[in-house]
Structures are given as structure tokens and as C-alpha cells.
Amino acid sequence: MRIAISWIIVIILIMLILFVPAIILLQIYLSKKKNKWLGLILPFITLAISVLVVLGVTIFSVNSVVETIDVNGKIISGGSKMLHTSSDILLTSLYMFILYNIPTGILLIIYKACRSESGKTKEIDRMSIQDLE
Fold first, then answer.
1. Could you list the residue range(s) of the whole structural domain that residue 32 is in?
2. Would 39 disulfide with which of 8, 48, 69, 111, CB 3.0-4.6 Å?
């Protein structure tokens, strides 16, 4: 059993090692395109995922089902009740939003770096065209 779990962990790590650079290369490729909106696709996707996660955490924290079960496995009482205070939910949601937007920030930094680089080449092209005239 331990061998199977360790192989699963190794496979997941290999997939991550291949997946993360592929996403970064895709972001660089899309950011260097002439259409500036293409480079914003991946940051928008990660932002949408973070919003969905925050909504899920908030909804789960507010509407949790609580059941009391006796020794024999029978449900004595059950119902929906709020498990956390509103400040706990707010802090957890804020933490999750910040945590899940780290990839968004990294992708936006890549986008900005690639777009500023392409802006410099456009200026150089304009200057060389003016020199030719």
C-alpha cells in the first residue's frame, strides 16, 4: 500500500513539473501576440477559479449540516447550522482569495514583462522607419 501511494505522489510531482513550465511558456507565447487580450486569458481563468473557491468556502462555512449520531449509528438530531462566525468566514475567504491569486499575479507579471518588451521593439521599428524617410 505504501509503495502505491509513493508512486502516486511521484506521478503527481512529475505532472506538476511538466505542467507549470508549460503554463508559463503558454503565457509568454500569448503575451507576445499582437492582440493584447490573448495574454490576459490565463490570468482571467485563474482569477475565476479563485472567485469560485472563495464562494465555495463561504457557502460551505455558512450552510453546514450538523448531525448527532448515537452509538448504534442512528441519527438523533440533524439540521443546518452556522459553524463559524462571520469574522472567521471573512478572514478565511480573504486568505483563500489571496492564496489562490498568487498564480494570477505571476501570470500578470509575465504579461506585463512581455508587453513592455514588445512595446520597446515597436518604438525601435518606428524610429528605423523614420530614419529611412
1. 2-132
2. 111
